[in-house]
Amino acid sequence: MNNFSYTQAASTKEATAAKAADKQAAFIGGGTTLIDLMKSDIEEHSLLIDINRLSMLGIENPATGLRIGALERMSDVGEHPLVVQNYPVISQSLLASASPQLRNMASMGGNLLQRTRCGYFRDTAFPCNKRVPGSGCPAQTGDNRTLAILGGSTSCIATHASDLAVALVALEAKLTLESPKGTTRTVPLADFYKLPGSTPNIENHLAPGELITAITVPAAAHARKSHYLKVRDRASYAYALVSAAVGLDVQGGTIRSARVALGGVGTVPWRVPAVEKYLVGKPATEDNFRAAAALAVRDAKPYEHNKFKLELAQRTIVRALLEVA
Amino acid sequence: MEPQFFDQPGGFVGQPIVRVEGREKVTGKAKYSAEFPLPGLTYGVLTTSTIAKGKIMSIETAAAAREPGVIAVLTHQNLPKLVKTPNTPEGKKDTGSQMGFMPLTSDEIFYAAQPVALVVADTLDHAIHAAKLVKVTYQKQEPIASFHDPKAELFDPQKIQDGKADAHTKRGDAKGAFASSAIQLTATYNHPVYNHNPMEPGSTTAVWDAPDRLTVYESTQGVTRTQSTLSAMLGLPREQVRVITKYLGGGFGCKGSMWPHTILTVQAAKAVGRPVKLMLTRPQMFTSMGHREDQAQTVQLGATAEGKITSIVHTKTSTTSPWDNYAESNSKILDMLYATPNFEASYELARANVMTSTFMRAPGEAPGSFAIECSMDDLAYKVGVDPIEIRLRNHADHDYSTGHPWSSKSLKQCYARGAELFGWSKRNPTPGATRDGRFLVGMGMASASYPVHNSQGTARARLYADGHAVVQSGATDLGTGTYTVMTQVAADALGLPLEKVRFELGDTQLPTAPNSGGSVAAGTVSSSVYLAAQDVWQKLIKMAVVDKKSPLYKAKPEDVATEKGRLFLKKDPKKGEAFGDLMKRADMTDIEGMAQGKYGAGYEAASAAANADPAHKDEAAQHAMHSFGAHFCEVRVDMDLGTIRVSKWVSVMGAGRILNAQTARSQIIGGAIFGIGSALMEETVRDQNFSRYTNADLASYHVPVNADIPNITVEFVEEHDPFINAMGVKGIGEISMVGVAAAVGNAVFHATGKRLRDLPLTPDKVLMSGMNS
Q1: Among A234, A239, A319, whose Cβ lies nearest the Cβ of B704?
Q2: Which of A287, B518, B647, B654 is the most buried (most CB within 10 A)?
Q3: A203-243 confidence digits (pLDDT tens)
Q4: CA gap B386, B392 in Å, rounded
Q5: Which CATH number fits domain B22-30+455-599: 3.30.365.10, 3.30.200.20, 3.40.1710.10, 3.30.420.40?
Q6: Residue pair A67/A50 in contact by the 8 Å Cβ criterion
Q7: Does A244 touch chain B (CB under 8 A)?
Q8: What is the ipTM of this complex?
């Protein structure tokens, strides 16, 4: 870890201005991922801008949908009755993440910006295009059991690590971003993340100095009937091998709307519109779920050690759908 | 004949006494080896190699040296030279080093994360930062990653375990007997690299008290072994090297020998003229203190149509370092566990760019038991009998590997009691036939065994006239309860209340004790403590019988007994006195006893030699000594998603006298969890192109969390073994995990009808096994 400066921002304006002025600066919320990355020499920052005093709090659920302040802690959101009741997939994805200690510290905004657990990214002795552009991607012919089968490139097949992001992408969540100029914009989370392509070091569309201030999720019937299923190597405190965030609105046995996204298989949280489209208008049966799930991995590219994800992804979708059917 | 320990009426031995050091630990007062605040202490941090094979072309240290607080940047170019390195076979033998190579002695790189520099600074933060600024340029060469590597060359090592075991064993004609057996089963088992990962990482704090006197606060399972290795490498008399380990946060074998970071810290302290502390980081724990080697083993099991074993042929292939022929000896348990008339085993190795592997909890027995106990399960299904029945049919009434009778064996009782506690009779014998919703439910079991390794150790007991005692032995408490059980033994043996006895350990200035490893500590140290107390009593009895004021004046020493701190006539117990009265008359504040306790064959031989009956002598000195046990496991397998959850566990052990019902239970639980981890999730993944680990942290190297572990039922079968040691204690540290992975694998087979032989049984393997049907 390098020496760095530290400042507490009193307002979002102050925070974003400080960040815009220093390319090597970083916002710090809970710090659970940032400090880890700095200690591992994966990221170096000249300045940490503490945003914990900013008023980006609140969990509200007006008729239009859910609004969560970006500084809310994962545990508070995961256990909030409004979320548990109306957006179970969000609650479940949060409570299946990390450990209680980490969830108590980690902020919602920070969770969405966490970086991959790819072993090559996490050890600076390895080449890694995400960490050092142009250095190579040993994962392509190496230990890729946990890595992506969707959205990868010859430069990078690192899996996106967030559970929350999978649930939010499924429910078409939007981020509120505030710029150093004080202007705000909203971006669908699905458009926020960037596929690795030839620049896996750039992971999202944040403009310089921009700060995530809130997350909004539209209200929907499929959100109330939603579920997050995470398959992992141990029962808790492990990243997903495969996860599925699903939501169904079934009326009279027929699916009116469906939302399906996958985690653990994509370089970004992976919504599968083809699966959703297939389901709409059909009876909510296991056979239909299975046929739909097959569409999820049509474009997948498996590697030597992660072929199992092709099958596991489909089964995870089916099982998750059965939970809400 | 050495005296035998008998239970004291109302005694402490065997009772579930809570840890005597528990309060110290939970209040943070207990000082682990990296927690000694020393004046002038400095901090050492390692810079490690980014390549696995090649040469250092240059090291730039100037930038690091310029950083604030940096005291020294040490590399192979400027580190003080050792008197002796382990870099030659003779040097390795003389130093007792586990690894035949010492980093920072040349410019060569043999394995990934090999230390290349050590930065010493005034604070830990300064040292961490400066260590990163050391810039090394390498001439890279293509490494070999494992025996799986097509470039790897397999060879016959002749000897394994550093020459301690033969690479070839043969009894009878195993291959011939296999070829003519009615039932022939052949199976290959694959094991990944495992790392010990004790909670407390390795650490060293080195203080040169004088130019030729060294004190080291070390995180080690054996202060004596560390002392001898340090003294050999430094060319110092042993008594000028003091090693202290008061508390240990686990070891599991990786702290059983001295590793490079220790001597590097000592050299750094020499170089800077101040105390230096170095604590390994968690990632460094994967590349600094050994590992269990990656290995494949093939078992050929021949049997009669009724399932009586006729032959076992076992071969193992594994990865070793560029210098050492280390392989854990899996075959020993296959040789002795069942009545096997013909047996053959052999090992082959491949050198790779990895550090030397080392013993890890139940070395040999853990992977060996997975192979034989899964194969026995296969045999049971092939013959069509219950897995317990197949084991009873092949029960070894004596040790087939040596021909000797057992000193004691309760394996049949373990099967019976375990089956009862577990509810084995409810098991549907057909695999894949028990369902609970979406889960397939399976029940499996396995035998466990672990040998008594011969050992000896010394203890000193000082009894004070005012009724308290200090008992000492240079042993180690891994965290499993040595402090507590030795306090219990001493209290009973000296007839004192528990709180009047203090037991001290973990210092080379105390009487010499063996490493806490190979399950020898409890058996060795308890008998030396007991015998040291007996030495005290013998001295007191001798005093009493010549003391005119003693009621025991002129009694024969052999007619005097002791109990609860009182000396009395055996024939007339009312005639006697308390030791305090005797000592006060003699104006003595305290009295010391000292004794050596033997464990295993040495004890038996000494006892037999002391026995008057020469006919009995030969017989008594030739027992095979093992603990035995049985594990029972229920799993719930989700075949759709590939996940396995252990839902029920029972372990029943016959392991001699149990010194403390609570700490013993905890240790068996710990072994079961350790084994479940190895069965289901633990695996250090080595990139085959870089020969470097890709998951060297506890986020990616999965050990079980609470949610992975069900309630674990533990019971002990009562055993009285007169041949092992004065206490009849066998040791339980290792046997607790022997057979555990097999019990899980057998339960998974019973649940699914799929035999999985490649550990760990992660969801991908379970899923693929279901798809291949």
Answers
A1: A234
A2: B654
A3: 999 999 999 999 999 999 999 999 999 999 999 999 999 99
A4: 10
A5: 3.30.365.10
A6: no
A7: no
A8: 0.97
